[in-house]
């Protein structure tokens, strides 16, 4: 029985209490068509209405990159449910009650950690007491960056691991201004993918071989992407990038770039007029040719700075979620990161 049929079955069971079973039989096919129409009409938010599947390992993920890697490694052995709907930016999203219901029934809950999902501690407390769900911050093990100061213009200094033994990455994120954007660098994405694979094997050891095999395929793709970033960015003459929100710290660290952000770690941390003037001066002094912006957040500030400094804007995608258009185009982590590399090569010539 497919998920959709099961859903229809539930609906029919519910309505059978209201009407006679004999007449209901005649309505089977029309109800099925009707419910399919309803389902496709609200396809925009299909991820958040995804259902637990019995007989499979059910994994709830918070946002796109964790979902994409988990779906790739999980393959046919795992049912992966993503909480964040298409076109939604993760920094100010919070879960709904249905998300708590689904996660309580799942075997695994995978989130980024490093402070991205501030709602996670309370969310985990609100799950059913008898839930057996295992919660894992998949960025664990990535060497984290701090963004110093509240002005949002931190230059991504490496966070010193002074209390690595007694506290997790999560605790460190709460204590400091930790940059949560680990997935934007293929190097840290590899660590995340490995954590995801280990978690799947742990909750579902019967399908270990499949998880290992699909993880190796994903790992090979991430290594190729990492090689391309390393090779192609090593030869560009300019290394300074100006971005709208401070999401490229790990990318900058791992590939020898210097990030200047108009906004802070979260896209709603707005700059002052003085910040814009300072950045415009930097853009002119350094001969920077493009200001980067992203699709899920307003490009107003990037446009303001670009016109102030007399330069162009271009997209650099932090891959925090897909737009509906990107879903339709079958874009994924790899196609978006390839486009990022192409745009970086143009901007840094
Ligand atoms: Zn972000």
Automatic annotation (TrEMBL):
What domain of life does the native source organism fall in? Bacteria
Q: A Pfam family name for this chain?
A: ZnuA
Disordered: region residues: 147-180
- The stretch of residues making up the signal peptide is none
Q: Which CDD domains match?
A: AdcA (cd01017)
Identify the InterPro entries for this entry.
AdhesinB, Bact_metal-bind_prot9, Lipoprotein_PsaA-like, ZnuA-like
Q: Where does this protein come from, organism-wise?
A: Paenibacillus silvae
Keyword annotations for this protein? Answer: Signal, Transport
UniProt protein name? ABC transporter substrate-binding protein
Family membership: Belongs to the bacterial solute-binding protein 9 family.
- Biased amino acid composition, Basic and acidic residues: 150-166
